[in-house]
Fold:
Amino acid sequence: MQRYRYNSTLRKALLVDIEAARELMIKVGLEEGFTSRDTIIISQFIDQLLNQLEKITSTD
Structure:
């Protein structure tokens, strides 16, 4: 029960972080180009967040 509540809270936090990073990536991409170093770094960060989300979702 406690683990489920923890995973649910973590999942919600990850979704908020993913959405914020996605919005930032789009903003930076429009300003600097979608292949700029900064855009790619943010994209890689989003990939890491998505991997974390997948990991906790698959254990529920």
User: Anything to note?
Assistant: The radius of gyration is 14 Å. DSSP finds two helices and no strands in the chain. Residues 1-58 form a domain with the MYOD Basic-Helix-Loop-Helix Domain, subunit B fold (CATH 4.10.280).
